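EI: anyone free to look at a 209-residue chain?
SC: sure, send it
EI:
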Amino acid sequence: MTFEENRPPPDWAGDVSVGVDAWTRRTSGPGATPAAPPPEDTKAQVPDADPEAVARKILLDQLTGQARTRKELADKLAAKNVPTEIATRLLDRFEEVGLVDDEAFARAWIASRQPGKGLATRALAQELRRKGVDDEIAREALAEIDPDDEEAAARALVRRKLRSLERFDDTVATRRLVGMLARKGYGSGLAFAVVRDELSNAGREGLDD
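SC: here you go
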């Protein structure tokens, strides 16, 4: 038997963690040799994304299939923590090339909401303001609405609603119809005139103003 065979086994034999401590010369007592830090993971070292490229992608994603106002896009960039300077520069550029156009947005919004939802000028103005369209831009776009088209939309709303009011007397029907038009943004004068006329056409009577 050799000398090595008679030598007692090391303290860490059978215990992997103790063996690793012994191999790296780490101990828990005074004078311990600090373990060398682990090597840096070069695969994890990814360069920071270009903020401007990120912001541009956000804008293009937002504009895919749907027009948006400058304020809507600015709010989205702010929510993504895009620096104000970068956001302003990109939005200016997008306006220059026509990708952001609040005037066109306002006209398109009115064209879809006025006949589709039967909204009056007042209600449309409130929606455009919530979208961030400048009041002057909104006024110019709303001025293009033909008053006859607005009245026609009101009449269409009343005729549709009348079908569900057959079981109510004329007084209740008048109040509900006028209230519906008011919620759509119509003034009381036009609302009462349209309701009276449509009730009369249906062989019913309404309230006086």
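EI: Residues 147-201 form one domain.
SC: 👍
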